[in-house]
Structures are given as C-alpha cells and as structure tokens.
Amino acid sequence: MTGDFYDYFELLDEDEKEIVLRVREFMAREVAPIADESWTNARFPHQLIPEFAKLDIAGLPYRGARSLLTGFLVLEMNRVDPSMGTFFGVHNGLAMGSIDRLGSDEQRERWLPPMAAMEKIGAFALTEPEGGSDVAAGLRTTARREGDVWVLNGAKRWIGNATFADLVVVWAKDEADGQVKGFVVEKGTPGFSATKIENKIALRTVQNADITLTNCLVREENRLRDANGFRDTAAILRQTRGGVAWQAVGCMMGAYELALEYAKDREQFGRPIAGFQLVQDLLVRMLGNVTCSLGMVVRLAQLQDAGVYKDEHSAMAKAFCTVRMREAVGWGREIMGGNGIVLDYGMGRFVADSEAIYSYEGTREINSLIVGRAITGVGAFV
User: Fold this and answer.
1) Start and end of every Acyl-CoA oxidase/dehydrogenase middle domain (predicted)?
2) This prediction's pTM
C-alpha cells in the first residue's frame, strides 16, 4: 500500500494483517476488473455477494474485532471501489449495527447469523425526501400501534441496498409518544415498496431507493426493543460516521496511488511527468492529506476500542477527512489532465464518488456544529 506513508498498517497484529490482505486480494481480483462497468451501467454485481461471504468479515465488530481492524477493511474496499465499500458499510455497519446494539437477544439470534453469512442483506432507512440534516426533529414517517402490529406510513429517500435488501431497518415516529422507534421490515411486507433512484452521478453501483410505506404492517416482534428515541438512532450514527471517515481515507488513497502510477508512466516533453516539480508538489499534497487523515482515523479507532470516544470525535473525523478527500481527488484529476475525466483511467470514478461520501452521514456543516457544541458548550443548531 504505497499510500500508507507512515506504515500505520504495522499497528495491526499478524492475524489482523492476514484478514486485511485477504480483503485486499479479493478487491483486486474480483472487484477492480468490473468496477467501471458496474458503475457505468448503475448495476450492482450480485454475483459477488457469495464471494464477499467467503471472506467472513460481515459482523466482525460484533464478534469482538478491534475497530482498528474494521477500519482498515473499510479503507481497503474504498481504495478500490467506494460503491462496494458503501454497500458493505450499509449492510455491516448501519443495518447489522442497529440490530446488534438495539435489538433483543432473540432478535440478534434471529437476524445476525444470516446477515453475517450474507445470506440476508440489510438496509437502513432514516433519511426522508423532505428532510436531511433536520432528521432528528423533522422525521415525518409515522408508526401507530394496533394490538401486536404497527402501522407504518411515510417515505424514505437515498436508502442504499433497499431495492434488493432482505431486511430494512426503518425509523419512524410513534404517534402515541412522539419518540423515534426502529422497525425491521422484511422483504415482501405488504405496504412496502422501493424504487431505484436513477441518474446519479456518484456511487452509481449502489442501489439507492425511494421507499414508500403505505399502511405497512410490521409485527411487534420486529420492533427493535432498545430503539426508543432518536438518541438511540444517534448512537448508531456515531459509530458509522467514523466508518465514513475511513471511507474517505480509502477513496483518496486509491486516487493518490492511481495518480502516482500515472505520473510515472505518462510522458511529456520527453520524460515522465513525475519528474516535474509541479506534479511532485500535487502528489505530495495528496499524500499529506491521506497521511494526516489516516492518522486521525487510527486514533479514532483507538478511542473506540478504549470505549471513550464521543459524538464529537467521529464528527470531527468525518468532517475533516471528507474535506481532505475532496481536495486530494481533485489534485489527482489535475495530474491526469483530460484523462482524469475518462473512466478508463480510474480517477473520474473517485472524483464523482467523493461527492457522495462528502455529503452522507452528516454534512460538513452539521458535523462542525456537533464539534462546535462540544468545545464551546453552546449549541448553534437552528
């Protein structure tokens, strides 16, 4: 990994390194050759799910794996294809994380084993068509209890994996007490429909959907037992927001490594452009962004493993690393010139996908306000 300039990989133990290297080899062998085609056609490679399952990495956080290991796995996926990294993050982090943290023992036993085996794929439905940053107060999807059944009504947007997911964790406001609760909606539930969002310019391989819930009937046994308010939802986002910071590091590292190889091979004025001062300056800027961001997420993982990390820690990492990513992929595109906007050279996909990573799991502005509240003691939210 030429992008790991300070050798943070060496912080992993030998067993952890073996897992990371296995994922690295899989991404190079199975994902890289088809990444551009899948992206261009906005088609998800379902045939890779059984191969993903053989890696035995789904559910690692819930089997005692260190956050440092799971972070490096996120990095490796996004270093090759942020779309596939996002697919796995939604399934492994948001969906499985919600069930593991907020579900009952029975619910964990019912759903987590098949999800860990990737026999069932998960999605996470929080964002709505009319709400994004104000989701905590502005959630419009409702849940009404009628005996042993809940009736869900509303709409969700930008829900990754939702067109084919077997389980969708849906967040809705209880009409009785006004609190946000979580429900696992299984494939085929009447009143649930998911329509693929077309014409995206980023993460095109990810199957994002508009979800409509029309008198959708969900059994009480599918309500997550410990999801009783938005603070519980936020606990999931705190964890996965750190994962998005690792995604950003992977995305910009992949872009840096592409730019470096291109600069060595591309000749102008009779020699490789890697020998020109201005090109070297851009490469060093890219590497600097990768290195400082990787240092931040490594420390974040250490705080997670120590059980002392807070909302503001993951918010800072997400905000900082995605800004640095946006800069870095832009410099990579600059090094490649016109070739940087052609998928054949790889960089264009990283540039486009970085825009989605920059925006989801809390915008830079919202994450800045989370950190700002922590350091000043004064909330500046509207």
Assistant:
1) 123-216
2) 0.95
